[in-house]
Amino acid sequence: MTSWPAIQVDMRNALVDEEVVVDNGLVSSSKPDDIPPFNKQMIEEFAEGEHAAAA
Question: What is the pTM of this model?
Fold first, then answer.
């Protein structure tokens, strides 16, 4: 992930210690060991199709 130095504290505070996190179709993970569960979740998200637009 990349960001601007001024928000580095916010970025650190946003980290979640979980294998995979899904937020409105956006899938993220933290480390290389999480790639298998990340890939599985990505496939599930692709199968679900398009998500409704956020309000």
Answer: 0.67
The answer to whether residues 47 and 39 touch, using CB atoms and an 8 Å cutoff, is no
Q: Is residue 2 part of a domain?
A: no
Ramachandran sector of residue 34 (left: φ over 0; alpha: ψ -120 to 50; beta: rest) = alpha
Q: How many domains is the chain partitioned into structurally?
A: 1
User: CB neighbours of 9 closer than 8 A, spacing ≥ 6?
Assistant: none
* Distance from chain centroid for Cα 31: 11
Structure tokens at 18: 């979980």
Q: What is the pLDDT of residue 35?
A: 95
Token couple for 49: 């199709």
